[in-house]
Amino acid sequence: MDKFPLHRSDRYIRLEMVGQGSFGKITRAMDTVLDRCVVLKKQPMESEAAQRELMAYKVFAAHPSAHVLSLYDYFTEHKMGEGHRLVIVYELCDCSLHHIFKSPPCRGNGLAPPKFAAYIKGTCSGLAHLHGLGIVHGDFSLKNLLVKGTACVVADPGAAHSAQDFSLRPDEEVTTAYIRAPERLLGEARSSAAIDLWACGVVAWCMATGECAWYMNDGLDVLLAYNTLLGRASPGE
Ligand SMILES: Nc1ncnc2c1ncn2[C@@H]1O[C@H](COP(=O)(O)OP(=O)(O)OP(=O)(O)O)[C@@H](O)[C@H]1O
Ligand SMILES: [Mg+2]
């Protein structure tokens, strides 16, 4: 008998939730064909994030890296009331850097230097790989960096875009506020690899100190916090 089931989704037995995504739950599952645990991420088929994520992974398939989360498979599902959903199957990681940032011993103290160095090496190597391919990640936040043992990999390229000639109006901004670069907070529409470098610096700060005085959800609050910490900034500075 054919080892592959009729419906692709039958191959995966869904277990518990491991995270909450913008469009739904991220679920640990058992791959019954390869007998290994994986992660399923379900998103509306037509969402821009899903399309960007798949597009980026097509590039990573041609240019793989140990510092980028591995995509194993993808398929579509249709459920009454939910419409068509894209399900992407990823390698399972232990947790996100955000989880480590929020938990002892990192919380309030920062990581011990060897751990910090190992995670930041993975983070920077993953980012260098994307930038080398001409891709800006666009949302390089603690929740989008995943830990596997002592390694850290870059995940969730749902906001990824070209490093050349890409603009986004401030009202189209959907990315995480506390890692958003000051020029974007001040209304600069053009994007470049520089916005990821700022975010990478914020990630390093968070992991080195275990705190972040501008860890806020709203861009305006982050800007006000920068004004308090650094003095007033203006466009072009
Ligand atoms: N492969 C994985 N292994 C373990 N945990 C994961 C994995 N993928 C995602 N998660 C968990 O789920 C969370 C959300 O995942 P992800 O960022 O991909 O979803 P999202 O819908 O793009 O969310 P957001 O829009 O908030 O960034 C992660 O922060 C992490 O805690
Ligand atoms: Mg995410």
Molecular structure report:
There is one protein chain. The protein is α+β, with helices and mostly antiparallel strands and 237 residues long. The protein has 2 domains: 9-91, Phosphorylase Kinase, domain 1 (2-Layer Sandwich), CATH 3.30.200.20; 95-230, Transferase(Phosphotransferase) domain 1 (Transferase(Phosphotransferase), domain 1, Orthogonal Bundle). Helices cover 31% and strands 26% of the residues. It has 6 helices and 12 strands. It has helices at residues 48-62, 97-102, 113-132, 182-185, 193-209, 219-230; strands at 12-20, 25-31, 36-44, 71-79, 83-91, 95-96, 135-136, 145-148, 151-154, 161-162, 166-167, 190-191. The longest helix has 20 residues, at 113-132. It is globular. The model has no long low-confidence stretch (mean pLDDT 91). Bound molecules: adenosine-5'-triphosphate and magnesium ion (MG). Magnesium ion (MG) is lined by residues 143-144, 156.
Summarize it.
The chain is α+β, with helices and mostly antiparallel strands and 237 residues long.
How is this fold's topology laid out?
Layout: E1 12-20, E2 25-31, E3 36-44, H1 48-62, E4 71-79, E5 83-91, E6 95-96, H2 97-102, H3 113-132, E7 135-136, E8 145-148, E9 151-154, E10 161-162, E11 166-167, H4 182-185, E12 190-191, H5 193-209, H6 219-230
Helix pairs in contact: 3-5
This protein binds adenosine-5'-triphosphate and magnesium ion (MG).
